[in-house]
Amino acid sequence: MPNVWFMHRRAIRPAVLPFRFKQSAQPPRKKYIPVIKLIKLFAAILVPLMIGAFTVVTTLQDSNSARYQREADLTRMERQGQLQEEVEKRQRLADLE
């Protein structure tokens, strides 16, 4: 059989406590709820923004890399053309001699 005095004491005890203790007994989270909601909102917005920023930065780097590669290819092709002309010129001179 449960202790009747304990049950009765539990039921009365909150009513007997002074008003200031009741306020401090409440969880202090209520005043932080807007802050927590703002942090959650910020975190929810931050993930897509970071993905978008990563995509933009990666795209810009790839386009710059492709431009530099094209310039390098053009320079190499021009150099190969010059070398080929020199080889043909030497070949003609060798054929004339």
Q: Could you explain the architecture of this structure?
A:
The chain has one domain. The chain is rod-shaped and about 100 Å long. The chain has 97 residues and is an all-alpha fold. 87% of the residues lie in helices and 0% in strands.
Proportion of residues in extended strands = under 5%
Question: How is the biggest beta sheet arranged?
Answer: none
The amount of helix comes to over 70%
| Number of separate helices | 3
Number of domains: 1
Please state the CA-atom Rg, rounded to the nearest Å: 40 Å
Shape call: rod-shaped
Short précis:
This protein has 97 residues and is mainly alpha-helical. The protein is built from three helices and no strands.
Short key terms for the protein model shown above:
single chain; 97 residues; mainly alpha
